[in-house]
Amino acid sequence: MNPSDRQTHPLVRLRDYRAPAWRMERVDLSFDLDAEQTLVEARLELRQDPERPDAELRLDGSALDLLEIRLDGRDIGTDRYRIEADGLVVCGVRGSAILETRSRIRPIANTAMQGLYLSGALETGFLLSQCEAEGFRHITWSIDRPDVLAPYTVTLRADRERYPVLLAGGGREAAGELDDGRHWVRYVDPQPKPSYLFALVAGRLHSIEDAYTTAEGRRVRLAIWAEAAVLDRCRHAMDCLKAAFLWDEQTYGRSYRLDAFHIVATHDFTMGAMENTGLNIFNSKYLLADPLHATDDDFRHVLAVVGHEYFHNWTGNRVTCRDWFQLSLKEGLTVYREQEFESDLASRTLRRIEDVRSLWRTQFAEDAGPLAHPVRPDQYREINNFYTTTVYDKGAEIVRMLATLLGREGFRRGMDLYFERHDGSAVTVEDFLAALGDANALDLGCWLGWYRQAGTPVLEAHSHYDAERRCLELTLRQHTAATSGQSEKQPLPIPVALAFFDQRGNRLPLQCDDAERLRGDVLLLEEAEATFRFTNLDSSPVTSLLRGYSAPVRLVTSFDARGLAILASHETDGFNRWQAADAMARQAFAQLLAGERGGQPFLEAWICSLRASLAESAIEPATLAEMLTVADLAALAEPLAEIDPDAVFKARLTLETSLARALEPELLESYAALASASAEGTEPAAQARRRLRNRCLQLLCVVDRRHHVLAAAHYTRASCLSDRLGALTCIVHSAASAAPALLEEFAAAYRDDPTVMDKWFAVQATMPSAAALERVCELTGHPAFRWDNPNKVHALLLGLAHRNPIVFHRLDGEGYRFTAAAIRKLDAINPQVAARLATAFGGWQRMEPRRRAVMREEMRRLRTAENLSADVADILGRSLG
Ligand code: 0A1
Ligand code: ZN
C-alpha cells in the first residue's frame, strides 16, 4: 500500500475548536465486571446547545459491542442510529435526551491499556481503567472530550471471591450482596468532571491506610492499594502523600475537598501515573519503595510523582483543560509544582541539575528535529503522541519563568485568582495568563509566544568592560531557528538571572543604568537585541548568566577557562556552579572532538576545579557528584550540527578517562571517607553521600581494572539497592570479568521482583559496547521479559534505542533494524509504546550521511508495514516530513 493512502486519523486543529453542541449533564454507569467480558450500562442525561438546534447527537465510542440502545426510555431501531468507526450518531434528537446503552467489552484482549484492561494474569490479576486522553470511549458511548463535565454515579458488580475490592472515584455510597456469590458497590462523584478522569479498579488488592486532616478541618481517608506481598513498600508513598497535602496547603492555600483519596499500584501501565479524581493509578515503579528494592533515585521519584498526581487535584482536575491543545496548562504547571515540592523537601540543586540535563538532552533535541512542536501544539492527529517533553518540561520552564517574573507573592496572587475564577471549569492557556496578569496589573500577552512558538531560542551574550568608566556593557541577542511549519519567529520575553564576581570569587554589585529592567538579579530581555550598562565595577567581572537556569534557551557566549573556574569554585547558586563545570567539560569535549592538539586550557581548568571541589568540606555532596558526572552521549551530541556517534563516544571516553586518571588519589580518598554512607538511611543527606560515593567508584572503574575489585566488594557489602545496583552498573559497563557472574547472581536474587528486574534489563541495554545489541536481542527471550509489559519494553528496548546511542547507531545498521522490527511487533500490542520507541528515529536528519540514509530507509520500510497503527504512522509521517 502506498503510505499516502494509509488510513490515519484526521488532523485536529486548534483553530477549528467549537464548544460542544451537546453536553452530558449526568452520567450513570453500571458494570458487570469480568476480565473476559464486561457488560457496561450507561445512562446519559444530555442537553443540546440551544444555539445549535441542527447539530446531530454524536457519541464517541470505539471497539464496543452495542447490545441495547434506548432513547428517553424506549428501545430504538437501527433506523434511528448509525454506528461509525469511532462513534454513534442518533438521528432526529433535539433539545434534551436520556440515552441508555448496554455494551460489551473484553478487558483481557485490551493490550493497548486504554479503557478497561487486565493487570497481571487472568486468574490472579485485577481490572483497572485508563481514560486519558481518549480511553473512555473504549469503555462506553459518551461525549469524550475534556470540556464536557458531569457528575458520575458508578455501580460496580462482580464476583466477590475473584474481585473482593471494587473501587471508583468519589464517595462510596452503598454496597450489598447479590445472589450467586456476587457483590456490588456504588460510588457517587458529585463534582462535575471530564470523562478522562473516570477510573475504576476491581480485584484482589490490599491496602495500607492513614488519614489527613485538612486545613479546613476535613478528615480525608487515605488508602494505598497493592498486592499483599509489597504492602510494606507503600509506606514511603504514604508519607509523600501526606507531605503533598500539607505542601499544597502551605504553598498555594489549596486543600483537598473529598472524603477519600485512593492510590492503586500496578505493574502494567503505559505511563508513570494517572490523576483520576479520588482514585489515582500508579505505575508500581513510582510508588513502591524500600531500601532493598528501590534506589535513592526511586525514592525521590516516588516523592515527585506522588506530589505530581496529587497536585493535579487543583491543576488539571478542578480546573481542567478546554481541549487537548491546552495539555500543558495542566501538565507544565503541575510539573513546575512537583519540581518545587521536591526542591523544598529534598535537594533543590540536584533536582534543578537533573531537570536541566534532561531538558538539554531530550527536549532540545525534540525542538531541533522534525517532531518539534509548540508547547501548545496547533494541530495533532494522535493526541497520545503529544505527551512529550516539550509539553511537560518546556511547559514547566515557562511557568518557572512567569514565577520568576512575578516573584513569590505575585505568582501566588495570580494562582489564587486562577483558582478562584476557574474552579469547576475547562479553560485555556489564555485564561491562565490573564489570571496571572490581572492579579499583578500586568499584560502577559507576549508570553503566549512561548506557548505558540516551537524551537529553542539561542541567547547570545557579549560583554565589554570599560576600565575608565568602570562599567560593563552586556549585549544580549536572541534568535530562534525555523521549525517545520513555522518559518517566522518572534522575539520572546527572556528573564536572565545574573551575578558578577571578581577574580577571587567575591560577589560584586549589580547596578544597571536601566534600573527598570533589572528586578532583583533578573534582567528581562524582550526584544531581539538589547544592551545593558552596569556601573561601579572596579575591574572586569566574571559574569554568571542564567543563574538557576532562568530561561530554557541555548546560551552562546565566549567562554574563558579562568572565568568558568572561578564560577565552578565560588558561585553561590549551586546550579550555576555545576553549569560552570559542565561548560568547561563541554569546551574540552569540543576540542577533543575537533582533534585539536596543544594546550587544553578547558580540560586542565576543569580537572583543577574538580580537584579543589573534592577537597572542599562545605560543598553539597549531591552537587559535587553531579559536577563529577560527565554529560552523557546524547547530551554532548545534541548541540552538534552533524553527529558521528563513534567520534562522540571516543571523545567522551577520553574526557572522562583524563578526569578519572588525574584525580585517582582524591577519588580513592573520598570513596573511603564516605564508607559509612551505605548503611545510612534514606534522608536526602545520606542519599547525597551515597550518590557521591557511587560516582567516585564509577570514575575509578574507568581508570583501572584494579578498581573492579573495589566494585565487587561494594556489591557484596551493599546494604541497599542503590549501592548494589551502582556497583553492578560499574562492573557491567566497564566489562569487568566479574560481570556475567554478578548479573546472574542479581537475577537470581530478584527474579520475582518485576521492578528490580527492570533495572537489570536496563543495565544491560545501556552497556557501552556494540555487543550489547546481541545481548538485548537474547534478553527478549528471557523468562522475565514480556512484550506486553510497558516497563519491560522501556527498560530493554527504549533503553537501547534512546539511551545507548553507540548501539542504536551501529554503523552496520543492525541497531536500526532491530528497533524497527521491535516497533512492528509492539505496534500490534500497544501502539502508544510502539510510537514512543519510534521517536528514536526522530533525530535522523542530524546524523552523518551514512547513518542518515539507513535511518530514513528503515523508517520508510516501516511505514509500508501492514496494519500500522495511527500512533506509529503519525510519528513516522512527521519524522520523514
Ligand atoms: N496525566 C498523567 C499522564 C498520563 C497520560 C496519559 C496516560 O495514558 C496512557 C496515562 C497517564 C500525568 O501527567 O501524570
Ligand atoms: Zn501530569
Automatic annotation (TrEMBL):
CDD domains: M1_APN. It comes from the Bacteria. GO terms for molecular function: alanyl aminopeptidase activity; metallopeptidase activity; zinc ion binding. GO terms for biological process: proteolysis. It holds the Pfam family Peptidase_M1. Residues 455-556 form the Peptidase M1 alanyl aminopeptidase Ig-like fold domain. Residues 237-444 form the Peptidase M1 membrane alanine aminopeptidase domain. Residues 564-880 form the Peptidase M1 alanyl aminopeptidase C-terminal domain. Its EC number is 3.4.11.2. Residues 110-197 form the Aminopeptidase N-like N-terminal domain. InterPro entries: Aminopeptidase_N-like_N, Aminopeptidase_N-like_N_sf, PepN_Ig-like_sf, Peptidase_M1, Peptidase_M1_dom, Peptidase_M1_pepN, Peptidase_M1_pepN_C, Peptidase_M1_pepN_C_sf. It catalyses: Release of an N-terminal amino acid, Xaa-|-Yaa- from a peptide, amide or arylamide. Xaa is preferably Ala, but may be most amino acids including Pro (slow action). When a terminal hydrophobic residue is followed by a prolyl residue, the two may be released as an intact Xaa-Pro dipeptide. Its cofactor is Zn(2+). Keywords: Aminopeptidase, Hydrolase, Metal-binding, Metalloprotease, Protease, Zinc. Belongs to the peptidase M1 family. This is Aminopeptidase N. It comes from Dokdonella immobilis. The lineage of its organism: Bacteria, Pseudomonadati, Pseudomonadota, Gammaproteobacteria, Lysobacterales.
